[in-house]
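--- STAGE predict ---
source: upstream dedup step, 1 unique chain passed
mode: sequence only
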Amino acid sequence: MKVNFTEAEKVIRELQQEGILSKDRVLGRNQLYQDSSRIEALSYRMDHFQNVYTWKEAYHLSANFVDWYGWDHLQMSLIEIKEEARKLREMRKMRE
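--- STAGE serialize ---
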């Protein structure tokens, strides 16, 4: 579970290094939802909801729910984050 969020955070940090996203954002447990870009909002959703659902259902030994409401949603959000990063980079190239 943490692997997905770490990978998502890496994508966002790369965008910050490239100057596409502002560098003053906090990710993870202390992240604020207000004034977030779409990619940061996806990260927030992964960390605050999907990660918790996955852990909770694994704790209760509910394999189906871990897949349906946890792991699958984490994977979909990670794919969305990567796609959003690709779009942001593409838009930046078009502007140059």
